[in-house]
Amino acid sequence: MRMILLGPPGAGKGTQAANLSMALKVPHISTGDIFRANIKEGTPLGVLAKSFIDAGKLVPDDVTIGIVELRLAQEDCKNGFIMDGFPRTIVQAEMFEKMLAKQHTGVKLVANIFVPDELIIKRMSGRRMCTCGRTYHIENNLPKVEGICDACGKPLYIRDDDREETVIQRLKTYDEQTSPLVEYYRREGLLKDFDGTKPIQVTTQEILDEMK
Ligand code: ADP
Ligand code: ADP
Ligand code: ZN
């Protein structure tokens, strides 16, 4: 089960990836989560990534491709993965295809989650994150206990880059560098569109139905 989740920031990629990973029993790989874990630990990768992330820009392709290659080499990716937030540029997509071709495999589905910009700003300002990869929202997707992750019990936090001015820059970055991937994967016949404004579980089920 090799799947890519594509969509602007706040479309619900992380939320869907967590559900799909559970249902399909393949790992959820988020390049954003890997960068944030490195920032927290203060690694050289984290220091480098933070300067781009806080500016709402993309981390350079060679750095990003390098971390994905390392992650894919791990044992748990043997039967597949849910890629959340990678690839984000045409160069990344081309390198990813080559990486998978070396293993005589490829992506089965690119789920393109669509959400209008006005909704995105609202979603990001209410987003709460857990270091385990779960994502919540103060109105739409509450944890059972306020401020605490249902899955692992750790305290939730607000991302530095979810400030409105950074979100606006991230949407611009998406339009310029990531949105061309929609046509790229459509031409390859891999892309399916999903309405990200529907309730979370409805979209999860629609994606699962498409995988059958
Ligand atoms: P969101 O899910 O809200 O779009 P992510 O957690 O996927 O955010 O990514 C956060 C930030 O990490 C991005 O704004 C970008 O700076 C960086 N990043 C994540 N994935 C990539 C990637 N594939 N290429 C370059 N930068 C990335
Ligand atoms: P992405 O990874 O694409 O940036 P997230 O999965 O982090 O997006 O979702 C962004 C915010 O919107 C989170 O606070 C999440 O709880 C909320 N959210 C995700 N999907 C939905 C949905 N279908 N309806 C309402 N809120 C949602
Ligand atoms: Zn958690």
User: Widest sheet: strand order?
Assistant: 2-3-1-4-7
Full CATH superfamily name: P-loop containing nucleotide triphosphate hydrolases
What count of helical segments does DSSP give?
9
Rg, alpha carbons:
16 Å
Query: What number of domains?
Result: 1
User: Per CATH, what is the topology?
Assistant: Rossmann fold
Q: Mind describing the biggest β-sheet?
A: 5 strands, parallel
State the low-pLDDT regions, or none: none
CATH class, named Alpha Beta
Question: How far from one another are the termini?
Answer: 10 Å
Nearest-integer average pLDDT: 96
The residue fraction in helices comes out at 40-55%
Number of DSSP strands? 7
Binned strand content: 5-15%
Q: Architecture, according to CATH?
A: 3-Layer(aba) Sandwich
Which structural class should the secondary elements be placed in? alpha/beta
Structural descriptors:
212 residues, two-stranded antiparallel ribbon, 7 strands, binds adenosine-5'-diphosphate
Explained architecture:
- The protein has 9 helices and 7 strands.
- With 212 residues, it is an alpha/beta fold.
- The protein has a single domain, classed as Rossmann fold, CATH 3.40.50.
- α1 crosses α9, α2 packs across α3 and α4 runs parallel beside α5.
- The termini are close together.
- It binds adenosine-5'-diphosphate (2 copies) and zinc ion (ZN).
- One adenosine-5'-diphosphate (ADP) binds next to α1, β6 and α9.
Task: Give a quick summary of the entry.
This protein is of the alpha/beta class. The chain is built from 9 helices and 7 strands; from the N terminus they run βαβαααβαβαββααβα. The longest helix has 15 residues, at 164-178.
